[in-house]
Automatic annotation (TrEMBL):
InterPro entries: T_SNARE_dom (IPR000727). Keywords: Coiled coil. PROSITE patterns: T_SNARE (PS50192). Residues 148-183 form the T-SNARE coiled-coil homology domain. This is STX8 protein. The lineage of its organism: Eukaryota, Metazoa, Chordata, Craniata, Vertebrata. It comes from Fregetta grallaria (White-bellied storm-petrel).
Length: 183
């Protein structure tokens, strides 16, 4: 089966971003209702449904990206760029889920942003974010070991990138030499 064309993938990413934005707005509205003592049951249902929809869209994007990279329809660099976009969506989804479960989180983020020069779209105070599940419960030595492992993985990726660039440089020089000879 052929993967969907690029415009569909982009529109799927845009749709996921819109859903994430709508969820954030609904959570803010729900929190406002709760502060005023009004019922927010309807909004909770909408938010829960939207979070599920967002998860499905992210899963579709991951599948499309995996297919595009494995069939070499896009370069590794483009695949990495798109993976970063998907990772950003995953992070946003986790933040929204935490805000949905933790009813007081969103106002604190807004309040803290006042101290950093105003609300910036998509930027939150990193000190207010919950600790990730990967690092929760780890000691100092465990965190240091995990950090070293991540750095080693990044170094291996950089080594691979370096060898690719060296090979391309060599090919460019050979092409230049061939052109000189032909001229």
């Amino acid at each position: 089966a052929q993967p969907p064309p690029l415009p569909r993938r982009l529109s799927l990413h845009d749709a996921a971003c819109r859903v994430a934005q709508e969820i954030a707005e609904n959570i803010q509205e729900r929190n406002r209702y709760q502060r005023n003592g009004e019922s927010s049951a309807k909004l909770n249902v909408i938010i829960r449904s939207s979070l599920q929809n967002l998860g499905e869209k992210i899963d579709q994007l991951k599948d499309l990206l995996l297919r595009a990279v494995s069939t070499h329809q896009i370069t590794q660099l483009e695949g990495d760029r798109r993976q970063n976009l998907v990772d950003d969506l995953l992070t946003r989804q986790k933040q929204l889920q935490a805000s949905y479960k933790n009813e007081g989180t969103e106002p604190d983020v807004i309040r803290s942003s006042l101290m950093t020069g105003g609300v910036k779209r998509g930027v939150t105070n990193p000190w207010l974010l919950e600790e990730s599940e990967e690092t929760r419960g780890l000691g100092f030595d465990d965190l240091r070991q995990q950090q070293r492992r991540i750095i080693e993985e990044q170094d291996a990726g950089l080594d691979a990138l370096s060898s690719i660039i060296s090979r391309q440089k060599q090919m460019g020089q050979e092409i230049g030499n061939e052109l000189d000879e032909q001229n």
